[in-house]
Amino acid sequence: MIRAAALEDLDRLIDLETRVFGDQAWSQQELRFELSASSRTYLVWEDQVGILGYGGYWSGERDAELMTIGVLPEARHRGIAGSLLARLIAGADREGLQRMSLKVRVDNTAAIDLYRDLGFSQAGLCRGYYQPEDVDAWTMTRSLSSVGPGPVGSVSSNLSDRQERIIDHE
């Protein structure tokens, strides 16, 4: 089940962050800010076992930026990341935002493939974006339907096996 994330999820999300992102995980303070900020929208994927994945975006005046998305290793290959991302895109669209952007490691092919499958295209390269590894990041963007017809209104639920392995800052 996908639902809105809440501050009550903080401890479980810190655990998920650490297990998914390792030394690149957000701190408790950073994650608390993300969950509390009025300009942020976060969703969790939860089943009877607990929270298996989450993701969120920042809303600007016209644009949204995907901040993070991650799924526990043992819960991958179930379409969780693709479902979360589709719901986040739909949420940004419902807010009337015009575009969603993100940054992704150039070596994260599973994430890049998922983003492409959901309508994102490469817009630029940020050299040395991920530190301390000094790894480059692609900036990817997609239009939202609030700016007219395009690839946006058709977020498919038929996602391939690789699409749930999206980890934006892995």
Automatic annotation (TrEMBL):
- Please list the residue ranges annotated as the N-acetyltransferase domain: 1-145
Q: Which InterPro entries match?
A: AcTrfase_RimI/Ard1 (IPR006464), Acyl_CoA_acyltransferase (IPR016181), Bact_Acetyltransf (IPR050832), GNAT_dom (IPR000182)
The domain of life for this entry's organism is Bacteria
- Record region (Disordered): 145-170
Identify the Pfam families for this entry. Acetyltransf_1
What's a single GO MF annotation on this record? N-acetyltransferase activity
Q: Which UniProt keywords apply?
A: Acyltransferase, Transferase
Gene3D superfamilies from the UniProt entry:
3.40.630.30
Composition bias (Basic and acidic residues) maps to 161-170
Task: Indicate, by first and last residue, each region the UniProt record lists as having compositional bias (Low complexity).
Answer: 145-160
Please identify the protein, giving its name as recorded. Ribosomal-protein-alanine N-acetyltransferase
The organism's taxonomic lineage, starting at the top: Bacteria, Bacillati, Actinomycetota, Actinomycetes, Bifidobacteriales
